[in-house]
Specification:
Elements (H helix, E strand, L loop, with lengths): L1 H18 L8 E4 L2 E2 L4 H9 L4 E5 L4 H6 L3 E4 L2 H4 L9 H12 L8 E8 L6 H14 L4 E6 L6 H5 L4 H11 L5 E4 L13 H15 L3 E6 L11 H13 L4 E5 L22 H20 L3 E8 L15 E7 L11 E7 L5 E7 L6 E7 L5 E4 L6 E3 L6 E2 L4 E6 L2
Parallel strand pairs: 1-9, 2-3, 3-4, 4-5, 5-6, 6-7, 7-8, 8-9
Antiparallel strand pairs: 10-12, 11-14, 12-13, 13-18, 14-17, 15-16, 15-18
Helix pairs in contact: 5-6, 6-8, 8-9, 10-11
C-alpha cells in the first residue's frame, strides 16, 4: 500500500510539473540532436528532465511525440536537402514546403521543421527563402536554423567580414521568430573560452536591433578538450544566458554519441541516465519556475563587475543598480571572480536584475542596492514566487544566478 501511495504522489508531482512547463514559444528548452529512440519511457524522461521540445524527430516518430505531450522539429530530408541550394527560387521552395508540411498541419506535436546547422553567410538568402516558404505552407510553424559561434573562422566558416555582419545577414533573411547559435566555452582545465561573453553581447545586440529573440546552445557532455559536466557549469551556462536576455537554451547533447571521447551526456552510450541528467533537470526546472516572470521582462542593460571581458560594460554603466558588493571567501580561480548583471524592466517599469556568479569554482556572498527605493525581493527558482532578499539568501554558488526585483 505504501508503494502505491508513493507512486501516486510521484505521478501527481510529475503531472504538476508538466502542467506548469513554460511553452517553447515563450522560452524553448531543447535537447539538441536527432531523436532515434521515441519509446514512451525515453520521451517521459525527456519531459521529466525539463525539456519542452523533444529535439529533431523523423516523420515516422512524430505520433509518439504527440502522445507524450511534447513538441519537436520535424527532420525531413526534402527540406534540409535544400539548405545550401543557392539557386532555389521561392516558387520551388514553396512547392517543396507544401508537399512536406501538408500532413502536419493538425498535429500539435509539430513545433517546426529542421533546416540546417551552422551555415555560412553565403547561404543566408536561400535559407531565408526556404524558411519563409515553410511558414507560408504551415502558418505558425518555426523553421530551424542554427548559427556558428564567434570563434568560427571568418573566411572559411562565416564567409562574412565580421561576426556581427554574419549575424545581421541571417537576422535580415530569416523570419523573426528567433536566432539560435552555439558556443562551447567550458574547457577541461577549468577555464572559460575567452570570447564567451562577447558572443552573448553580439546576440543580445542583434536581437534588440531586429526584435528577434535568441537561443543559446551550450554543453551537456564532455568531448574533445571540453570539460566534464558539473552543476556549476550548467548553472553558469543557463544563468549567463538569462542575464543577456536569452529566450531559449539548447543542450549539446542529450544522448552520448558513440564516437571518440564523447562522454557523460545525460544519457550514456548504454542508454542509462548519468549524474548529468540530474544536474540538468535541476537547472531546467528552475528555468520553468522563473519563466512566468522572466519572459515578461525587457532587457535594458548588461554590465560586469570584476574581470570585465573585452567589449563589455563595467559597473559604471549600471542603470538600475546603485551598488553591488561581492565577497568571495575562497579564491581558487581569482581570474574568474566577479559578477555579470543583466538589468530588466517589466511592462510597469519595475526594475529587475539577474545577478550571476561568473566563477565556475568559488561561492560568493553578495549584497545589492537599487537606485529605486524599496524592499528587494528574489524570485525563487524552486517555486517561482517572490520572497524577501535577506540573510542566507545573499549567497551564490559557483555559476549560480539570482533574479531580484524592487517590491512595489
Amino acid at each position: 500500500m505504501r508503494i502505491l501511495a508513493i507512486s501516486s504522489l510521484i505521478l501527481m508531482f510529475e503531472a504538476s510539473i508538466a502542467a506548469e512547463m513554460v511553452k517553447p514559444h515563450d522560452f524553448a528548452i531543447l535537447p539538441w540532436g536527432w531523436l532515434n529512440d521515441t519509446s514512451p519511457e525515453t520521451l517521459e524522461d525527456i519531459k521529466a528532465c525539463g525539456f519542452n521540445l523533444a529535439g529533431f524527430v523523423y516523420p515516422k516518430d512524430m505520433d509518439a511525440v504527440r502522445e507524450a505531450g511534447l513538441q519537436a522539429f520535424v527532420a525531413e530530408n526534402r527540406l534540409s536537402g535544400q539548405a545550401r541550394n543557392v539557386d532555389l527560387t521561392y516558387e520551388e521552395a514553396l512547392t517543396i514546403a507544401k508537399e512536406v508540411t501538408e500532413r502536419w498541419h493538425d498535429n500539435p506535436a509539430v513545433y517546426g521543421y529542421y533546416i540546417v546547422d551552422e551555415p555560412s553567410a553565403r547561404f543566408a538568402p536561400n535559407l531565408g527563402i526556404l524558411a519563409h516558404a515553410i511558414q507560408e505552407a504551415h502558418p505558425g510553424s518555426i523553421p530551424y536554423v542554427n548559427l556558428l559561434p564567434n570563434y568560427a573562422d571568418a573566411a572559411t566558416q562565416l564567409e562574412a567580414e565580421s561576426y556581427d555582419a554574419y549575424l545581421k545577414a541571417f537576422a535580415e533573411a530569416l523570419p523573426s521568430d528567433y536566432l539560435s547559435y552555439d558556443h562551447y566555452a567550458l574547457i577541461a582545465d577549468g577555464s572559460l573560452r575567452g570570447r564567451y561573453f562577447e558572443n552573448l553581447e553580439s546576440l543580445r545586440r542583434v536581437s534588440l536591433d531586429y526584435g528577434t529573440p535568441f537561443w543559446n546552445i551550450v554543453l551537456s557532455n564532455a568531448h574533445f578538450y571540453y570539460a566534464e559536466p558539473t552543476p556549476a557549469g550548467f548553472r553558469f551556462q543557463a544563468y549567463t544566458s538569462l542575464a543577456y536576455g536569452a529566450r531559449g537554451i539548447s543542450y549539446f547533447t542529450y544522448f552520448s554519441p558513440e564516437i571518440g571521447n564523447y562522454r557523460l551526456a545525460p544519457i550514456d552510450q548504454f542508454g542509462n541516465k548519468t549524474p548529468t541528467w540530474y544536474m540538468l533537470r535541476e537547472v531546467n526546472l528552475a528555468l520553468h519556475n522563473l519563466a512566468p516572470i522572466y519572459c515578461g521582462l525587457k532587457s535594458i542593460n548588461v554590465f560586469h563587475q570584476g574581470n570585465v571581458p573585452e567589449g563589455s560594460n563595467d559597473e559604471s554603466a549600471a542603470q538600475l543598480v546603485k551598488e553591488l558588493t561581492w565577497t568571495p571567501h575562497i579564491q581558487t580561480h581569482p581570474e574568474q571572480i566577479g559578477a555579470v548583471v543583466g538589468e530588466f524592466q517589466d511592462e510597469d517599469g519595475v526594475p529587475y536584475v539577474m545577478v550571476v556568479n561568473k566563477s565556475l569554482h568559488d561561492d560568493v556572498a553578495f549584497d545589492i542596492t537599487f537606485r529605486e527605493e524599496g524592499a528587494v525581493e528574489l524570485i525563487s527558482p524552486y517555486t517561482g514566487n517572490p520572497t524577501a532578499f535577506r540573510g542566507e539568501h545573499k549567497w551564490l554558488a559557483a555559476g549560480q544566478g539570482m533574479l531580484l526585483r524592487v517590491k512595489k
